[in-house]
Backbone:
């Protein structure tokens, strides 16, 4: 546990809190970008370069932009009259707090059984070439399925969001 | 403190924040943001276990996280497309106002 870990995780948690709590939806999207960047830095801190850069490309580069587009297309930046929270916010907060309590209790109770207490050595050296080899040999079927899924999601998202003027007439 | 415990606690905190956002916000886009945060917390767990697990060279956790990122991207695209479609139909993204199955 070094200083960089506390700094980066503080940044990620602060970004996540701001993304959930802020009133203006555009500010929420920007805070979400900060949270994604913090999580990408945590990945890099863990020695997972490829996952970290994939996180930056996919989340900061694509998902955050997509969220901003959706907010602007739905005029979601206007604060609604009856508040930004749903009818029963305390119930939701209580459920989230209970989930965090259970998860934290489980993690802290199993701390001695977790791996990693003795392996504080250098991060495993995994190059992008290793990942490419694994994707093309052992994980080639999941890769193809993900390719199919992404194609289907792309076409599906366009069809769902497309105008349906000719049907209305 | 065990380094893995620290990462797991941060991931649990991010998951709880995302869950609170998904459960308490009124705007459908904000609910999707909360779901994205929860998916990211799960990815952080996968990467942390890959890093501190016994066989990091087997790349299992890393591959799981990469595929999870790809599936989350597909989920975000379809979810936001649905929100835009509902907004065109009902002229609102307020989840409390969407109380009819019929269009």
Residues:
């Amino acid at each position: 546990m070094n200083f960089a870990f506390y700094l980066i995780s503080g940044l990620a948690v602060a970004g996540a809190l701001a993304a959930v709590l802020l009133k203006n939806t555009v500010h929420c999207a920007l805070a979400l970008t900060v949270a994604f960047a913090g999580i990408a830095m945590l990945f890099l801190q863990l020695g997972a370069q490829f996952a970290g850069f994939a996180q930056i490309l996919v989340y900061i580069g694509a998902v955050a932009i997509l969220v901003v587009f959706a907010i602007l297309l739905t005029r979601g930046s206007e604060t609604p009259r009856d508040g930004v929270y749903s009818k029963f916010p305390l119930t939701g907060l209580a459920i989230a707090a209970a989930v965090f309590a259970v998860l934290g209790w489980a993690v802290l109770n199993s701390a001695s059984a977790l791996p990693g207490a003795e392996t504080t050595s250098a991060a495993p050296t995994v190059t992008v070439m290793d990942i490419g080899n694994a994707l093309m040999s052992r994980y080639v079927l999941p890769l193809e399925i993900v390719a199919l899924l992404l194609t289907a999601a792309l076409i599906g998202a366009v069809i769902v969001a497309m105008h349906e003027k000719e049907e209305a007439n | 403190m065990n380094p893995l415990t620290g990462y797991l606690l941060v991931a649990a905190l991010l998951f709880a924040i995302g869950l609170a956002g998904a459960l308490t916000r009124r705007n459908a886009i904000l609910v999707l943001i909360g779901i994205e945060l929860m998916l990211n917390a799960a990815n952080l767990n996968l990467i942390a276990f890959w890093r501190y697990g016994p066989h990091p060279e087997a790349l299992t956790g890393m591959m799981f996280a990469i595929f999870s990122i790809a599936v989350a991207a597909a989920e975000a695209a379809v979810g936001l497309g649905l929100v835009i479609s509902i907004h065109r139909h009902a002229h609102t993204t307020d989840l409390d106002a969407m109380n009819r199955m019929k269009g």
About this structure: The CA atoms of residues 24 and 41 of chain B lie 19 Å apart. Chain B touches chain A through 73 residues (CB under 8 Å). Helices of chain B lie at 3-24, 28-52, 60-90.
